[in-house]
Amino acid sequence: MIETDVSTDPLWPDDTDWEALAARAVDAALAVSPYGSWANARFTVSISVHFGSDDEVQALNRSFRDKDKSTNVLSFPMVEPDMLAALANTDDGEVLLGDIMLAYQTCIAEAAEKGIDVAAHATHLLAHGTLHLVGYDHIDEAAAVHMEELEVKALANLGLDNPY
């Protein structure tokens, strides 16, 4: 089972069910990864999502990545990539997969630049962040292309357009 724990800064508008959006985005991203079977596992995979502010994200980015600026999404994996496959042998209990944080002001600005709905953009960023939690990255061109393909597939499964 996949459990998404969500917290939302008051900056984020209350016209969207951010908790449901996060759960759908996380589920869709995991479904297109090698870990799609976790949805039916006997153990619980828990992901924490925080819809935060640029200030919060900037502070984390500065502390953990030595980058003193905000960014749209940060992911903090709690399971080493080489241990992910071993989770299939887990019978019960809970696995804390990691944390994802979105920055409100950056998300709003990027959605406006792209001419898309903020909820659609947040969904994309959460799918992106979830893939980071299961070991995907975009450090080199080949890895970036593969990760983007998975994101596009996850979003298409949710009825959303290719963000690239």
Describe the structure.
This protein has a four-stranded mixed sheet, with helices on both faces. It is an alpha/beta fold and 164 residues long. The protein is globular. The chain has one domain (2-157): Collagenase (Catalytic Domain), CATH 3.40.390.30. 43% of the residues lie in helices and 19% in strands. It is built from five helices and four strands. Helix 1 crosses helix 4 and helix 1 packs across helix 5 (141-157). Its cofactor is Zn(2+). It comes from Blastomonas aquatica. Zn(2+) binds at residues 128, 132, 138.
CATH class: Alpha Beta
Main beta sheet, described? Answer: 4 strands, mixed
Give me the CATH fold name: Collagenase (Catalytic Domain)
**H/E element string?**
EHEHEEHHH
Percent of residues in beta strands: 15-25%
Number of helices: 5
> What radius of gyration results from the CA coordinates?
15 Å
| Helical content (DSSP H or I, runs of 4+) | 40-55%
Uncertain residue ranges: none
Label the structural class: alpha/beta
Q: Provide the residue-averaged pLDDT.
A: 95
Outline type: globular
Number of structural units classed as domains: 1
Read across the widest sheet, the strand sequence of neighbours is 1-2-4-3
Q: What is the end-to-end distance?
A: 30 Å
E-strand count: 4
CATH architecture: 3-Layer(aba) Sandwich
CATH superfamily: Metalloproteases ("zincins"), catalytic domain
